[in-house]
Design goal:
Layout (H helix, E strand, L loop, with lengths): L2 H8 L4 E9 L4 H15 L14 E4 L1 E4 L3 H4 L7 E4 L7 E10 L1 H5 L1 H16 L10 E8 L9 H5 L3 E2 L5 H23 L7 E7 L5 H12 L4 E4 L1 H4 L4 H11 L4 E7 L7 H10 L3 E2 L8 E3 L3 E5 L17 E3 L5 H33 L5 E4 L5 H14 L7 E4 L6 H12 L6 E4 H4 L1
Parallel strand pairs: 1-2, 1-5, 5-6, 6-7, 8-9, 8-10, 10-13, 12-15, 13-14, 15-16, 16-17
Antiparallel strand pairs: 3-4, 11-12
Helix pairs in contact: 2-7, 7-12, 8-12, 13-14
């Protein structure tokens, strides 16, 4: 297919969610916080990724009179707005995070701009003619002067960051922004985005204490419900049946507690294998879109010699901090919720691409950043269906892997056909 023909057929794919961060350009505190949020939602290097498969994030650090000279007229009062304008009609859900410090409040032009922004959001004016778009605003108060912002303070409950240490500010803002975005995504999709059923995979020999901390933290998060066999399931076949059933559920997710005993336990390996096995979406019929369960791993190595589990190759992982388990549990839960959102968003985009692109059997859409194990498993599943040799293009989220990463995946890619290639969502568009 010619590139121009494909572009014409695909058209403009609307992103399910976009995040805007607004702050005063001279506030270093807000600049640092906005950078951490960008890295968090975009899956930057500090988040353990480099593919750009995160959520779209934009900055607004300038303001201007949003009218033309003809619209203003001689002597008219300026109408200050963010610059460039927030394009809320380009996404199904737009979340605007405003970091309010004293500079933003004492500067009359900036104060007028953020007050006008809050009023436009409250009135639904940012959606233009797209009544299906949703726009929400989350103010973060960095200074007590926030309470002088009038309509912004009166209409929107802020995240209060004043008086907190820098690490506490980062954690509080990250959690509030993640929880709000996940809740809005869930509400916008009706019953298809139910609370996640989180399975805590762990070895009883040395992982139970960590799993219990994680279970308690997950249960404090309203969109998640945790279970694992010791407390939640009877022994025997009922446990195996529940585990296998959860692997096929769209709302299921998993946390692997990777201790020294974990790789030696057949059940732990089986749980990981099931979670990392690609599943074809059930709808629409004849879809070419495949998904994985949202999953993160917590590592707590000690002094035993162990081998790595290949199924965990592409899973986001972090070491366990036994000296600060409560805060660390919140970080793990936040990342799991982020993985849940990314899985949902990538599925929406992939289904849209599949629908627009027709029924070309040479193209396969996956909703995760590829790794060797999942590609090999996908090839095996397609071979069972007799379709593996037909796949010439595998399309994955983000704007692209590095050349070194693609070289590492070369054996798994060429396992389909010698002509098979990887393309990111951005390259495909």
């Amino acid at each position: 297919m010619a590139r121009s023909e494909q572009a014409k057929r695909l058209g403009t794919v609307k992103t399910p969610v976009a995040i805007y961060i607004v702050h005063h350009p001279e506030c270093k505190e807000a600049e640092e916080l906005s950078a951490t949020l960008y890295d968090w939602f975009r899956l930057g290097y500090l988040s353990g990724d480099s593919s750009g498969a995160g959520l779209p994030v934009y900055f607004r650090r300038q303001i201007c009179d949003g009218r033309t000279p003809e619209e203003r007229g001689a002597g008219a009062t300026p109408q200050w707005a963010e610059f460039p304008t927030i394009q809320a009609d380009k996404a199904e859900l737009t979340v605007i995070i405003v970091l309010v410090d004293h500079r933003m409040v004492v500067d009359p032009t900036w104060r007028a701009a953020i007050v006008a922004l809050s009023q436009r959001v409250a009135a639904g004016q940012l959606r233009h003619d797209d009544r299906t778009a949703s726009v929400e605003l989350l103010p973060a108060a960095l200074h007590d002067s926030f309470y002088r912002t009038g309509p912004l303070y009166g209409c929107f409950n802020p995240v209060r960051l004043m008086g907190l240490s820098k690490p506490a500010q980062v954690a509080t803002l990250r959690r509030a922004a993640t929880e709000m975005t996940a809740r809005l995504l869930r509400n916008s999709s009706g019953n298809s985005f139910r609370p996640l059923d989180v399975f805590l995979s762990h070895a009883k020999k040395d992982g139970t204490a960590i799993a219990e901390f994680l279970r308690d933290g997950i249960r404090r998060f309203g969109q998640l419900q945790a279970w694992y066999d010791t407390n939640d399931l009877p022994f025997g076949k009922a446990w195996e049946k529940r585990m296998r059933a959860s692997a096929t559920e769209v709302t299921a997710s998993m946390v692997s507690v990777v201790t020294d005993a974990y790789p030696t336990r057949p059940w732990c390996r089986q749980e990981t294998r099931l979670a990392r096995t690609p599943r074809r979406l059930k709808a629409p019929k004849n879809t070419r879109v495949w998904r994985l369960q949202p999953m993160v791993a917590v590592h707590h190595p000690q002094l035993s010699w162990v081998r790595a589990i290949p199924m965990l190759e592409g899973v986001p992982r972090i070491g366990w901090d036994p000296y600060n388990p409560i805060d660390h549990t919140e970080l793990v839960v936040d990342r799991l919720v982020l993985e849940m959102m990314l899985s949902y968003v990538h599925q929406r985009v992939a289904k849209d691409l599949d629908r627009r692109d027709g029924r070309d059997e040479e193209t396969c859409f996956i909703t995760w950043v590829p790794d060797s194990w999942t590609l090999a498993k996908l090839r095996h599943l397609l071979e069972e269906e007799g379709d593996a040799r037909k796949v010439k293009t595998i399309v994955y989220p983000g704007y692209g892997l590095t050349p070194a990463e693609i070289d590492d995946l070369e054996p798994a890619i060429k396992g389909f056909t010698p002509e098979t290639e990887l393309k990111s969502f951005e390259d495909y568009l």
